[in-house]
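Section 5.1 Outputs to date
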Amino acid sequence: MKKKAYSCGHSLTRRSFFHSAALTGIGLAVIPCLSFGHSGKQQLVRLGMIGVGGRGRNHLRNLLNREDVLVPAICDIDPEAIEKSQAMIRQAGHTPAAVYDRDEYAFLSLLERQDIEG
């Protein structure tokens, strides 16, 4: 039994595929603001961190290295993790974050903040 080839009416060859892919890559490299709907104007994202222990502080460190991210709130029940995280935030030149550390449900209060986007 012979398999039926499906086509949308366009002739796509290996050569034309690679040609199109290369042109797309070059275009995105030259004009990156066209990719993913980015307007070219840098917008600030406000993130709350829930859990700033060892791995959480690693994520926090990466976020603090970005110019388009603010961390206005952190949450952890370990006072040492909060202290180390606040030191990292101050060292990065940011205002210390609001702290949510009352109990293991304190993260719920952080999530209620209207200024947190993620």
